[in-house]
Design a protein that fits this description.
Helices cover 34% and strands 16% of the residues. The protein is α/β, with parallel strands linked by helices. The strands form two sheets. A seven-stranded parallel beta sheet has the order 1-10-9-6-2-3-5, covered by helices on one side. A three-stranded antiparallel beta sheet has the order 4-8-7, with no helix packed on it. Strand 9, helix 8 and strand 10 form a beta-alpha-beta unit. Helix 1 packs across helix 2 and helix 2 runs parallel beside helix 3. It is globular. The structure holds 2-phosphoglycolic acid (PGA). 2-phosphoglycolic acid binds next to loops.
């Protein structure tokens, strides 16, 4: 299985993930534009902070990185405080000075155009490295259970559990969007060269088990990453708590 598994604290995971991303960016920058896949949610917030710290220490200019966000809610204005554009501006883009053309999000009216744009703009390289979280449903991006196993960017109807989890940000269920445009599992498998997936807390233990040890299928979209060539999974001990020892023995600490 082309998955490396690391179990550590969330703080250590943020440092490790940040070093992987900034290291990749530093290697590529002298030659071309680095292409980085970007997740939102609570999980990657410390990683963005550590990326900025690591880049500052190493003299790496993150404003020259083109970012490709996984998804965006439908029905929120771009400037809405809970849009993912705003999230990225807050946690990364405005802090490093990313130019507007390097802040890539799916077109809410034309989802399929995103994959074509990735193919065109990244030329042969695809997305060099990208961050992912996992939802309680086993979703990646907003590719929810039942999604097309090989699908490109699409309009996704959010699972009830996913909408329920977003109540903590939106305040009440009726304010949570019902749909989002999201990269599909096929987008990630086809265009992302390297995936860094992070999950923390007991609430993620079931989907993490499904991703790494359950049957592979679209009932748990993250399990389809086991068909991807290069995935690093960073877990804290509660998120790893349902994995069997056999798998955990493979852990590189
Ligand atoms: P979270 O979301 O980081 O807020 O837990 C992860 C996800 O839904 O992919």
């Amino acid at each position: 299985m082309p998955i490396s598994l690391i179990v550590c604290t969330p703080e250590q995971a943020a440092v490790v993930a940040a070093e992987l991303v900034v290291g990749t960016v530093a290697r590529i920058l002298p030659h071309r534009t680095p292409e980085v896949g970007a997740a939102t949610g609570n999980t990657p917030i410390p990683t963005y902070r550590e990326m900025i710290a690591a880049a500052t220490r190493q003299g790496v200019d993150l404003s020259r990185v083109r970012t490709w966000n996984l998804d965006e809610y439908r029905g929120l204005s771009p400037g809405h405080p809970l849009s993912y554009r705003t999230y990225m501006a807050t946690h990364l883009h405005d802090r490093v000075g990313t130019p507007p053309e390097f802040r890539c999000f799916p077109d809410l009216d034309d989802p399929a155009a995103y994959d074509l744009r990735i193919a065109r703009d990244t030329t042969a390289s695809g997305i060099d490295i990208g961050l992912l979280g996992i939802g309680r449903t086993g979703h990646i991006g907003f590719a929810e259970p039942g999604c097309d196993e090989d699908g490109g960017t699409f309009l996704s109807e959010l699972h009830q559990t996913t909408r329920q989890d977003a109540v903590r940000e939106f305040g009440s269920l009726d304010l949570v969007p019902t749909h989002a445009v999201s990269m599909g599992v096929g987008t990630i498998r086809k265009y992302w060269s390297r995936v860094i997936l992070m999950a923390f807390g007991l609430g993620k233990a079931d989907p993490v088990w499904g991703m790494l040890q359950g049957p592979i299928g679209n009932h748990c979209p993250a399990s389809l990453l086991r068909r991807h060539r290069d995935v690093t999974v960073l877990l804290d001990p509660p998120a790893a708590s349902k994995l069997t020892m056999k798998l955990l023995q493979a852990t590189q600490c």
